[in-house]
Automatic annotation (TrEMBL):
Heme binds at residue 438. This is Cytochrome P450. Keywords: Heme, Iron, Metal-binding, Monooxygenase, Oxidoreductase. Belongs to the cytochrome P450 family.
Amino acid sequence: MYLLLTSLALSYAVVLAFYRLFFHPLRKYPGPILAALTEGYELYYNIIVGGGLVNEIEKLHKIYGPVVRVGPNTLHFNYPQAYHDIYTYGTTLVKDPGFYHGTAAHVRQSAFAFCDPQHAKIRRGLMSPLFSRRAVLELEYTIQQKIDKLLAVFWEHYNSPNSSVEMSSAYRSLTTDIITSYCFAECPNTLDLPDFSHPIIQYVEETFQDYWLQRHFPILTSIINNGPQKIVLWLLPKFKGYAGLKSGLERQIDKILDNPDILSSAEHETVYRHLLEPKGQERPSRTALLHEAIVFTAAGSDTVGNASYVGTFYALKYDSIRRMLSEELSKAWPEKDTPLSYAALEKLPYLTAFIKETLRFSVGVIHPLPRIVGPTTPEIGGLKLPAGTIVEMSALFMHMNPDVFPDPYTFNPDRWLAGETNEMMHDFVPFSKGSRICVGLNLAWSELYLIFGNLFRKVDLKLATDDDTIDDFSPEQRMDYFVVQWRKGYRVSVGKTPV
Ligand code: HEM
């Protein structure tokens, strides 16, 4: 019996391999044979190498050209027209369920994980009023309050010449408190821990690191959610972060469901209020509320935290950048103890160029975002592809395209100030494009203006270097866990600006 089953399985594998290599509609596209044969190629770079897929794809494009078969049924592109086609043909291309239902298995009922464009549109419609520019302008005080708190921690705990701040955790604590206050009118007060060691910071980082296990073994998420917690976490300790994040948010949601009046007494509008009072639509379930809350906490903190972290590094590494920021801010903001609004900061040309360069360079969501070609999808980058083909292009390849951004691996805000920037703006896609563009982009912009504005106006930061300090956010340092993570980090010393 075993012999029969084994020979059947082997025959199936041989026939499948033969089909994928010689009869598959993508057979004419170049790429490594192993990638054409099996999804194991992607698994190897995601899990065994550990966040290595984007770097590998970069190498593959150098060998095979602008279109590479990176999986049995997947093409990765490396030219702007293809990116624009994939992400703007709206509902004719959908998010790939094979990818999103695995990677986002822990948040299956969130807008982020919905692959059906209609479902995503309805859910996004419920939440988007909280993320409109108007709402962001009304609630910017929630951002300013947390920045003030970070600065107070700096003055109180890091004002001696021998102390230094680990900036990744500091920024992630700040952005966690911001996003949770903004979305839920309640936050874990991670900034109350002056060494920035609140467990939620680690939980979020670990949750992203679990993405590839979930992507390739989606059953793990069911086991973690439904099995006895202690045993499961003993067997799968990597998922402790996710379990911690989830249980904290569950407590918050249960409190609200038990006593919905809490929402009307909250300091300001919250995402729960929008979700629980849908006009003419079905109210999302407890699980859906939880899944949205996890997405907001993770997506809202990691991405802005990463951008702040990378941008600050270059402002400190290159004195000219730091000087330009300080001078512009001092002129526009003479009374630094009176807050300056986001609307005023937005008008500053150098700060704006610096933030654009930061978003270009830091590529927060670095993984290619896979979409499935539908029967009515027009050509992608000039190619007519069969329905069912998975197409993708990482934003990294847009932002590091030397034809549009000369010398792309140099951090250079001046590129945004020298003459015509239309072409760069067209290919500047930190938040993706089209119907699945980032929900939180208005909030992200305002956070970055307020964070950089306040820090470079009020704090005299200096890089505190040692052997472990990163010297460049270069390809060798980056890891692709859907979001970008870095192998090395940096610390800073803190002082007050003179006036
Ligand atoms: C610099 C900061 C940010 C960057 C670079 C960024 C980038 C992105 C990108 C590229 C996507 C598309 C993902 C995909 O198609 O799979 C996305 C989606 C999303 N982002 Fe952001 N994001 C940022 C900040 C935020 C913030 C502050 C929030 C706050 C709530 C947020 C919430 C979301 C949500 C809910 C989605 C899913 C949208 C959907 O699938 O329809 N993001 N983001």
